[in-house]
Amino acid sequence: MTQRRPILSLSVGVLFLLPAMFFVAVFLVFPSFWVLWISLTNQTLTGEAALRPQFVGLANFQALFDFENWMVRGYFGNALRNSVLFVIGSALIGQAGLGLAIAWAFYRRRGLLRELVYTLAILAWIIPDVVVAFMWVAYLDRDQGTLNAILSALGLGRVDWLIERPLLSIILFNTWRGTAFSMLLFSSALATLPPSYLEAAAVAGARPWQAFRDIILPSIRSHILTDLVLITLWTFNTFTPYLITAGGPTFRSEVVSIYTFRIAFRYFEFGRGAAVAVVMMMINLALALVYLSTLRREARAR
Description:
globular; mainly alpha
């Protein structure tokens, strides 16, 4: 049996990769190391530290993890806790759960209702952030908002959502905003399943929930894991909630991305802001490693 030779030599292959490697180095690797260096200094935008920043070592990171004020509003611990709740509520439960529910509800079904639901979900996904934020601010308004008008008609009273329930408001907003990706991914995964699987389950007397639990979920497990990791990364890094609540009131809806913006671009403390960015990069790296290891295990299982 003859061994197949590669079309391109190693040196030619590396030559083709050089442009991509150059852009990765310039726009990803170098900025990452530069942010790491700034996080070890007291760099600011104004004052003496702006002209002559000093090396402070891990002081910025120690300030972030000041456990005496860890969960106090306005500190990093509060922002991290809000980010965890935001990711769990809007990504893991909201987007993934709602996307899977819609995909399963319209599995192997056609009609006007399916097209309407899919079109509305995709529109919510592709409309510019500023437009969507304006719509939701108007929707959640206490006096003229549509949601409060519905609640008042049902005799439930009015709620000042952006003041009384700011974290819940951005969770609902982000769920509505990003469900389309999970919905489309799960719809594509379900479309690849042979119809004979569910037909055999129906003949055996399995209920729809049993078929969903024992056949559908194991069959699309790799798609579910991929979706969970990707939307977790996107949701953890999103800055869109700033357009709804700006992190307020009193930092009750401040997630890590908004906290970074406030420290670096409102207080102009670039050293502390860079330290937060480094922590965010480490969290993203950990999630990416989990994603890659999960894909390897899935590939080996097959």
